[in-house]
User: Fold YCII-related domain-containing protein from Aspergillus avenaceus.
Amino acid sequence: MNVCIGGMLESHPEAGQTPPFKGSVIVVRAESENAAREVLKGDVYARSGVWDLNAVQIIPFMCAVRVGDRPLP
Assistant:
């Protein structure tokens, strides 16, 4: 399940400046690295060839603050 999806930037853009896009970030809840990779394989960007799944980095993450099954707003 995708929890959070967004763009990663090179730096904070100045007002009116186009954000300097660096890549994508997806936070998923998965039982293992392989399960996380399966989630990514099903994403529209992976299926359409936008993402290079061989270059994906899977980085374990532990959330410090949650409310039930949802992150804080």
Remarks:
- The CA atoms of residues 1 and 28 lie 6 Å apart.
- Residues 2-55 form one domain.
